[in-house]
Design a protein that fits this description.
The chain has four helices and four strands, in the order E-H-E-H-E-H-E-H. It has 124 residues and is an alpha/beta fold. Helix 2 links the parallel strand 2 and strand 3.
Length: 124
């Protein structure tokens, strides 16, 4: 598998369908094999129900559910442990990170030989 996208989240039920569709579009356009691992960090809203629905409809979607909020670092840890892709990309669930950047991040690791690539916003 080319890419695992790990998405830690807390109370993001509204953004999850849009984020999934955006990631899927980018992956399909670039013909990547991939998985999306949503890590529900104890959300109080319907985030887990949304993840379950997406996972039933799309085989690339997987979910990890925490019973309570442990924080972003433990969520990433468990997402990384589950990831099977050659490259792991983390993304926040609030639509602030653009999935359109995924192909370039993947290229930098696979072709340029970087072990780690980090992005940041130049304009907020």
């Amino acid at each position: 598998m080319d890419i695992s996208v790990v998405v830690p989240l807390y109370n993001e039920e509204e953004s999850l369908p849009e984020l999934h569709a955006w990631i899927k579009r980018v992956m399909d356009e670039n013909k990547f094999s991939y998985e999306i691992i949503f890590v529900n960090d104890g959300s109080k809203d319907r985030s887990w129900e949304v993840i379950e629905k997406l996972a039933k409809e799309f085989p690339e979607v997987h979910g990890i559910k925490f019973r309570r909020n442990y924080g972003k670092s433990p969520a990433l840890y468990h997402g990384f442990a589950r990831a099977q892709g050659d490259v792991v990309i983390t993304m926040d669930a609030d639509l602030q990170d653009s999935p359109d950047e995924i192909p370039e991040l993947y290229r930098m690791v696979m072709e340029d030989g970087y072990d780690l690539v980090s992005g940041y916003k130049q304009k907020r």
